Amino acid sequence: MVEEQLARRGIEDQRVLDAMRRVPRHLFVEDSAAPYAYQDHPMPIGDGQTISQPYIVALMLEAARIGPEDTVLDVGTGSGYAAAVTAQLAHRVVSIERHPDLANGAAATLEALGYRVEVVTGDGTLGWPSGAPYDAIVAAATGPSVPRAWVEQLRPGGRIVMPVGRPGRSQRLALFTRDQDGALAETSLGAVAFVPLVGRNGWPG
């Protein structure tokens, strides 16, 4: 997976590649899907949610430029796979999920595998203030724009990586970098297709 789907497609950050090698993706999907876990496509995980394809996970984490001392907010825990990879890169990871069943299942999997991730249940569009400030925020769902709460919880120089656009229509993956005054500079990372970011500052559920 790492050599054929990630490195050959331009993922260069060795820390990200190593993290993707170490995390057993097949343990974050249903047993019936485990034989296909390392193929480069998204997979359903219940509650209308998906686990993103490996390349997109790697692309987002590389763009987030996560350092070993960083605190990261992972929005949309899902099965916990991306949070597990992020935990290989960061000092602290808070992962928020609005579906209690998914949050509970992911927390159990992450704990059983020894990944230090604080999984919380709530409206991800509001961030998680008690864990702030964050050096990076990575979201696995598409929103209409960057929620203001995320900007307020982000350190100056911090990065937000998220898809932007309407569900089922044109979406772009974007990197936003916060300056000292809270303004965001955007870099486009290409076209993507994600489930909607549902919440007070996202799309209606």
Task: Write the SSE topology.
Layout: H1 2-6, H2 14-22, E1 43-46, E2 49-51, H3 54-64, E3 71-75, H4 81-87, E4 92-97, H5 100-113, E5 118-121, E6 134-139, H6 148-152, E7 154-165, E8 171-178, E9 184-192
Parallel strand pairs: 3-4, 3-6, 4-5, 6-7
Antiparallel strand pairs: 1-2, 7-8, 8-9
Describe the structure.
The model has no long low-confidence stretch (mean pLDDT about 95). The chain has about 200 residues and is α/β, with parallel strands linked by helices. The chain has helices spanning about 1-5, 15-20, 55-65, 80-85, 100-115, 150; strands spanning about 45, 50, 70-75, 90-95, 120, 135-140, 155-165, 170-180, 185-190. The chain has a 7-stranded mixed sheet. Strands 1-2 form a two-stranded antiparallel ribbon. The chain has 6 helices and 9 strands, in the order ααββαβαβαββαβββ.
